[in-house]
């Protein structure tokens, strides 16, 4: 198996290292400036190390010259690997949204794709259907719950003919961290500042607090269940008012204390009913919602601490829900999820600790 990794950032670089560790080749790596394609069958670990270090130091791939690699544009690179690479896989570890640049061209050349990137799957329904038309050519586990076996669980439930009644979950490590700190009595503004300082939020915390990232994950679950919703159909509750949307990041951070009392009232209201406040996504046949909910103290969602994710599947047969729980973010587990997907596509050709079953 030979990987081409689009998005040579935090996840992409770890993915390459993990791939080499289990004997999977890396034939090309890409950032927003182009695709560096090995002139040999794949990169050696020394070559990848050098490219990785250069990228980490802030260089663009288009500025890295190595005698054993050529910089190509995405379409030419996909063409090249489809013709020259053995058992190729295109992994998307970028946050780029247009599937027509390299994902659909890869599929058109019978190269399977594996995504950690949610955006191509949460654009138009037409693009989603094109990407998922042939199930043996796409895996998307790391788009929801990082490396947790969420989408494979959903697939197995649906394949058995079972009927999903409800999928519910805490799908954001960042919001999980914030809500469990609020539960302990911390102030909203302090918690957000602390989460930002620890690197748990995106550089602009509004990217997490808006709920849109959670909504994208819920949309992927929903579309994989055969529903045809769009992002605009989802009821999304942001943890800040609309007038905080278009102000600068500095102004947003300085205005955060204005929200303390509002959030505190919500936490106290839940406590008054002997419940916990959580930020969840719910996917039901009639629609999708992402927002704050009050959950029973005895429920699995209430027991979550820190950045862990939890997804529960309530079905016709699993009336007591099947629950998947664990770390739902982090580069190592996300990359491992991508690698596991690659193995799912071509696994029989590679021997791992699982053996040859
Ligand atoms: N980090 C996590 O824990 C986690 C968990 C689950 C899913 N994910 C998803 O995994 C993806 C990668 O996350 P990350 O943390 O590794 O992000 P990152 O460090 O920001 O890396 C993103 C990479 O994508 C590259 N890129 C941007 N546009 C591109 C294009 N058109 N073609 C090829 N490459 C392009 C960027 O290139 P430049 O360097 O040139 O800008 C950068 O190298 C995201 O979609 C994220 O949502 C991440």
Automatic annotation (TrEMBL):
Its EC number is 1.1.1.3. Residues 3-74 form the Glutamate/phenylalanine/leucine/valine/L-tryptophan dehydrogenase C-terminal domain. It comes from the Eukaryota. The keyword Cytoplasm does not apply. GO terms for molecular function: homoserine dehydrogenase activity. This is Homoserine dehydrogenase. The active site is at residue 217. L-homoserine binds at residue 202. Its cofactor is a metal cation. NADP(+) binds at residues 7-12. Keywords: Amino-acid biosynthesis, Methionine biosynthesis, NADP, Oxidoreductase, Threonine biosynthesis. Residues 149-343 form the Homoserine dehydrogenase catalytic domain. The keyword NADP applies. Gene3D superfamilies: Dihydrodipicolinate Reductase, domain 2, NAD(P)-binding Rossmann-like Domain. Pathway: Amino-acid biosynthesis; L-threonine biosynthesis; L-threonine from L-aspartate: step 3/5; Amino-acid biosynthesis; L-methionine biosynthesis via de novo pathway; L-homoserine from L-aspartate: step 3/3. It catalyses: L-homoserine + NADP(+) = L-aspartate 4-semialdehyde + NADPH + H(+). Belongs to the homoserine dehydrogenase family. One of its GO terms (biological process) is threonine biosynthetic process. It is an enzyme of class 1 (oxidoreductase). Pfam families: ELFV_dehydrog, Homoserine_dh.
């Amino acid at each position: 198996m030979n990987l081409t990794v689009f998005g040579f950032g935090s996840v992409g670089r770890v993915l390459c290292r993990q791939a080499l560790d289990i004997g999977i080749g890396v034939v090309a790596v890409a950032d927003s400036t182009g695709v560096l394609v090995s002139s040999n069958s794949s990169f050696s670990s020394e070559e990848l190390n050098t490219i990785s270090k250069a990228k980490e130091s802030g260089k663009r791939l288009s500025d890295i010259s190595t005698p054993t690699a050529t910089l190509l544009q995405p379409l030419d690179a996909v063409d090249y690997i489809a013709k020259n690479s053995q058992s190729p896989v295109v992994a998307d570890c970028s946050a780029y949204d247009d599937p027509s640049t390299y994902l659909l061209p890869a599929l058109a050349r019978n190269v399977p794709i594996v995504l950690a990137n949610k955006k191509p799957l949460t654009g138009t329904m037409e693009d989603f259907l094109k990407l998922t038309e042939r199930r043996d050519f796409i895996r998307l586990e790391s788009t929801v719950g990082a490396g947790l076996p969420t989408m494979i669980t959903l697939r197995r439930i649906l394949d058995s003919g079972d009927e999903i009644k409800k999928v519910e979950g805490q799908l954001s490590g960042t919001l999980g961290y914030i809500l469990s700190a609020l539960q302990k009595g911390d102030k909203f503004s302090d918690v957000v500042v602390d989460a930002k300082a620890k690197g748990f939020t995106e550089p602009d915390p509004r990217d997490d607090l808006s709920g849109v990232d959670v909504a994208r994950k819920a949309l992927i679950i929903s579309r994989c269940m055969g529903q045809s919703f769009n992002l605009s159909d989802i009821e999304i509750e942001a943890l800040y008012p609309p007038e905080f949307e278009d102000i600068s990041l500095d102004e947003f951070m300085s205005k955060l204390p204005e929200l303390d009392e509002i959030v505190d009232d919500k936490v106290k209201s839940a406590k008054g009913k002997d419940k916990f406040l959580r930020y969840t996504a719910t996917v039901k046949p009639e629609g999708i919602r992402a927002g704050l909910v009050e959950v029973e103290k005895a429920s699995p969602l209430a027991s979550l601490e820190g950045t862990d994710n939890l997804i529960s599947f309530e079905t016709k047969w699993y009336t007591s829900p099947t629950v998947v729980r664990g770390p739902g973010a982090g580069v190592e587990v996300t990359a491992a999820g991508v690698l596991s997907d690659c193995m799912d596509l071509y696994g029989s050709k590679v021997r791992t600790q699982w053996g040859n079953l």
